[in-house]
Protein 1
Amino acid sequence: MAEFTTILDSLAVMIRLGIHPYEVEPQRVIIWVEMTVDYPEPLGQDAIEQVLDYDFVREGILGLAAERRFALQETLCETIAALCLADTRVRQVRVRTMKADVYPDARIGCEISRKRS
């Protein structure tokens, strides 16, 4: 078996996220995703068909940002984790979201880790 870590780093999206009146409009959120991906054997070919195509994660997150409003970062993290775990080769996923512009002197975020049972 072969194990890889696939990382989507610092994806900046405009998303409707938050519970406060000033968060009605979309705000900039930075998203990190780290997936532990299992393959039945070491890769034999240099071909995308052999591995997880991480475009589905990026496109899925962009779709969520365009279509849905989230009250909580925790819910956003859970939704992204479920998206990643939809690919049965993903054994574990860690998702971090960070509201980039809420405070002038800090970012505020959430991180979760989920494993396939």
Protein 2
Amino acid sequence: MDRYFDIMFAYINQIWDIPEGDKMVCRLFFKPIQVKKDTILEPAGKVPMYHNFIVSGFMRNFHLDEKGNEVTVDLNDGPRFFTSFFHFMNGSVTNENLQCLTDCELLRISREDVDRSAAMGKTQKDYTIKVLQQKMEQDKERINDMGNLTAEQRYLKLIRNQPNIIRHVPLKYISSYLGIKPESLSRIRKEIT
């Protein structure tokens, strides 16, 4: 399981220098787990219990619209932290579901352990703030793209910036994430090729 932590620390070090003492705190509180494909890791209607770091695999965050259709609001494209951030941080009931789209290897930490580890570590608050800021910027960019880019432009941007999603995530989830009807995405893909 050292590999799990090596991948997480490499990710964190891109954002913030994490000292050895804080790495020990992470090893104490983050728990490695393996989750099977199609598992709903955190269901809607409950307070999210864990903050997840995806070591390997692909996950999505989705909710149901007023017609009962699934709306994918986040897809991961590599090792990164992944949860229903707002609800996890505020301890509130979420309308979102976290689903493993493939078999996943994760490190996860409970809300109580986040607070305990923050009290013990020197840099956790700093890199947690940076992770949240990055997530907010990504969400802001996505909202801007949904309002200002055509469906084809959104798809081409995803191909350019997150090619692993195109290779590993089913098209129905990609179309939902991009706000494109599946048949329109199929047409766009044919036109591009």
